[in-house]
Amino acid sequence: MTTVPSPRTVVENRFAAVRRHDVEAIVALYANDAVETSPAFCTERSGPEGVRRTYTELFQAFPDITDDVTSIVVEGERVAVQFTARSKKPDGSYAFE
Questions:
Q1: Which residues lie closer than 8 Å to 30 by C-beta, 6 or more apart?
Q2: pLDDT recorded at residue 83
Q3: Where on the phi/psi map is residue 92: left (φ > 0), alpha (ψ -120 to 50), or beta?
């Protein structure tokens, strides 16, 4: 019998994988029919290849990106996360926060 992780566990594992920059661990957390949307790219990205592309590009563009989760709210199968993502420029100043 396969145990299905809780939605909270899936989200926590995703943020842990992002902090490790582990693209394949991130991809493994998404459903095959997952669809990502973001103002950072023009069209939706779908499935494992879309997820892989998103995080590969993110880690290449911001090799020191990190995040700090400040709160998680779970309601049934829905999870909302408040977090701060950070990356620095070569001079040490923040590229974004």
A1: 47, 48, 51
A2: 93
A3: left
